TrEMBL record:
Belongs to the GerABKA family. The chain crosses the membrane at residues 294-316, 386-407, 419-446. It comes from Anaerostipes hadrus. Keywords: Membrane, Transmembrane, Transmembrane helix. The keyword Transmembrane helix applies. Pfam families: GerA. This is Spore germination protein.
Length: 503
């Protein structure tokens, strides 16, 4: 880091009116950068004005640069003053003067073009960015049956445009800065001015400004630097690839962090219940959405507690089972040489290995690996009397319940808590089961995110019924969701007018 600060100090010199000094400086700083393009020529009737153009090959729109900058400069029909170049010649609308070599080199590395003029102690910066990127595609991680199908890409400006397209409001602000001392990655904070809580916005801006690291390449890295409490498996930030989800969150007073090179957008603050909300929840009727959300909460309990519950019952409290069920359990475990805890851990770890292998294998091969591997391993383990059929059913139900939760980061926390609960149940049976859930709930109730309780609205600090219950397990009809949740600042929580109210 010290080396970087030394190099940065060198870059902070002003641009010299002697164009040869600028050429020498650029050549020295960009030494061994073979993708740097440098063009030097003279223009004017008497060829009196020296021009030096610098840009990075592969990051600029060379056609635009040729037609809007270089071609007009090579014409002789303009006044001889250097200021006339910017006033009469340049055919690009997006340009500005810069004064330091640091700004010039950062602009070149960002895909812009710099034009140095002999005799001028400043340079012209042209916006000529044309990064290699993929087009807007379908959301593959947050699939929705109804609603928009587009997703974010790795381009910052394309991502902000997808959000702008949905919120055509002048109060939607985009604060763009850079992060990473070497990567200098562009990022943008997006929020609606009259809905966001200013103290939360100020905290986030201060946090972003304090981050001093070589490079940030994805929002998954950024959220780890932003976390104050890293001693929790539960995500304190929400990542999404859907523009419609980001737009609706911004209109609730939340803040979106759009990072260049990342196809995911960071949303904050968050609460426990936002991870159970899917985009198409608001495009379906409220009865269907409520039913599905209740299923998701049940699935969350099953994904954490079912393997541990089985270990507790089979290992410590078989007497609580009805006699036919107990006989079936004894019959299924006949010939299995391992204790219940070993057999459950063996199947759970095998499933986790299959899941990881399926993710890493390309395309359709990954899905085939998961299905075929699960069937073969499960059946072979039963036939070899390594595990019982009931354990296979328990692990399969746990996996299905895990996949029912619409957020991958949130699901990862449940996968860890599942093993925590299995270990407790292996030592203390049902007592460990209930103590584990109690410890987890106490932990959730103590967490907070920028002053917002993580377990909100189950934890209500103000002693009144929260409007967030209208979008909790039961999703009210849209016409009755008249108020925004607690993310929004006081006095701006009315979402729609009452019937008969004057607009």
């Amino acid at each position: 880091m010290d080396h970087f600060h030394t190099r940065t100090h060198k870059l902070k010199g002003n641009i010299s009116p002697d164009i040869q000094e600028n050429i020498k400086y650029t050549t020295q700083i960009m030494q061994d950068c073979n993708d740097l393009v440098q063009k030097q020529f003279k223009i004017g009737i008497d060829h009196e004005i020296s021009i030096y153009i610098v840009y990075m090959d592969g990051l600029v729109n060379t056609e635009m640069l040729q037609e809007s900058v270089i071609r007009p400069l090579l014409q002789d029909s303009f006044p001889q003053e250097r200021t006339a170049i910017s006033q009469y010649v340049i055919e690009s609308a997006d340009w500005k003067w810069i004064d330091t070599m640091e700004d010039a080199m950062t602009a070149v590395l960002s895909g812009n073009t710099i034009l140095f003029l002999g005799g001028e102690a400043r340079a012209i910066l042209f916006s000529s960015k044309l990064f290699p990127t993929r087009g807007v595609q379908n959301a593959d991680q947050e699939v929705a049956i109804v609603g928009p199908k587009d997703s974010f890409t790795e381009s910052l400006r394309m991502n902000t445009a997808l959000i702008r397209r949905r919120i055509r409001d002048t109060r939607l602000k985009v604060i763009q800065k850079q992060i990473g001392t070497r990567s200098k990655t562009d990022y943008a904070l997006m929020y609606i001015e009259d809905l966001v809580q200013k103290d939360i916005l100020n905290k986030i801006q201060k946090q972003m400004d304090k981050i001093c690291v070589d490079g940030i390449f994805d929002n998954g890295m950024l959220q780890q630097y932003l976390e104050k409490d890293s001693k929790t498996p539960f995500p304190l930030y929400q990542l999404t690839q859907r523009p419609d989800k980001v737009a609706s969150s911004i209109m609730e007073g939340r803040i979106a962090v759009v990072l260049d090179n990342s196809p995911m957008v960071l949303l904050l603050p968050v609460t426990f219940n936002v991870f159970f909300q899917a985009s198409d929840d608001y495009y379906n009727r409220w009865e269907i959405t409520t039913f599905v959300r209740i299923l998701r909460y049940i699935a969350a309990i099953i994904s954490i507690g079912l393997p541990g519950f089985y270990v507790a019952i089979a290992g410590f409290h078989p007497e609580v089972l009805p006699t036919p069920f107990l006989l079936a359990l004894i019959s299924a475990r006949e010939g299995v040489p391992f204790p219940v805890i070993v057999e459950v851990l063996l199947m759970e770890l095998s499933f986790e290995l299959l899941r990881e292998a399926g993710i890493r294998l390309p395309g359709q091969l990954g899905g085939t690996m998961g299905v075929v591997g699960g069937l073969i391993v499960g059946q072979a383990a039963v036939d070899a009397h390594l595990v019982s059929t009931i354990v296979v059913i328990v692990v399969a139900l746990t996996a299905i319940a895990t996949f029912s939760i619409p957020n991958e980061l949130f699901t990862s926390a449940f996968r860890l808590m599942k093993f925590f609960l299995i270990i407790l149940c292996a030592f203390w049976g049902l007592y460990g089961f209930f103590l584990g859930f109690l410890a987890m709930f106490i932990h959730l109730f103590y967490l907070e995110n920028y002053g917002v309780p993580y377990a909100h609205p189950m934890v209500e600090e103000r002693g009144r019924l929260s409007t967030a219950f209208q979008d909790f397990m039961v999703r009210y009809p849209l016409k009755r969701m008249k108020y925004r949740p607690e993310f929004t600042k006081e006095g701006a929580r009315i979402r729609q007018k009452e019937d008969g109210d004057e607009k």
